[in-house]
Design brief:
By secondary structure, the chain is of the alpha/beta class. It has 11 helices and 9 strands. 35% of the residues lie in helices and 19% in strands. The mean pLDDT is 96. It binds S-adenosylmethionine. It comes from Aureimonas endophytica.
Amino acid sequence: MDGLPPLRAVMTEHGLDPRRALGQNFLLDLNLTGRIARQALPFDDHVVIEVGPGPGGLTRALLSEGAPRVVAIEKDPRCLGALAEIAAHYPGRLTVIEADALTVDIASLTGGRPAKIVANLPYNVGTQLLLNWLTPAAWPPLWSEMVLMFQREVAERIVATHGIAAYGRLGVLAGWRAHAAILFDVSREAFTPPPKVTSSIVRLVPRPEPIDVPLKSLETVTAAAFGQRRKMLRQSLKSLGGEALLVRAEIDPQRRAETLSVEEFCRLARLL
Ligand SMILES: C[S@@+](CC[C@H](N)C(=O)[O-])C[C@H]1O[C@@H](n2cnc3c(N)ncnc32)[C@H](O)[C@@H]1O
């Protein structure tokens, strides 16, 4: 399709037998990776940051869909040969960094240009990576859009709002910074090897206006509230001021955590 060898042949040539410890469930169908890459259009002058390119299915799709510049961070050195072939096919457009993405400051990769993050994330570190990108104090964030694959259950927690069973700390932190939506599901069979569960593609875009509140306070209040999510807030927030705190925030002390909007959590956090 793009003049490069089929991904299955690439895996054989480079000895890329998938490793579970690295969350390696590869997408080998370029039609599917193309569909994912197109969710991040238009690329304009954005740098696309991809975490975990593996044998390069999504990387190839991003480049063939016109991303002017892709910076890919991969922890597994076995993938570097296959990725170097892609870089040679698209001169000057792909940079591969061999690193653990958890330790990379992505601000150092954009060269001051706007960025989009597009990735089929390793499941074991996906949530932590998302939190690393969501929570820096700087506003606007350096990403103008993220298109990310998660296990469906995690995706549901990211997009959940108040009143929904999956709503919890992750939904509050995501909602504090971004508007998030599930775009479509990807079945287990699409991966090599198939994971245990269905996956979903999530899009996040920054909120139009930031909500000014210290991250630490927001984490403290959501941890306490959702740590005892069945209890009334006057009980679950007892150690943080309980009823008096809730009254100051003009929130009914008899409510439960999952009924509070992101804005209400932020109001409470600001009073801590
Ligand atoms: C789910 S696979 C996706 C591979 C490829 N993007 C695809 O869609 O076929 C996750 C990839 O992330 C890499 N990876 C795992 N942990 C990582 C980390 N901490 N930092 C960077 N890459 C990591 C794995 O080696 C693997 O290539």
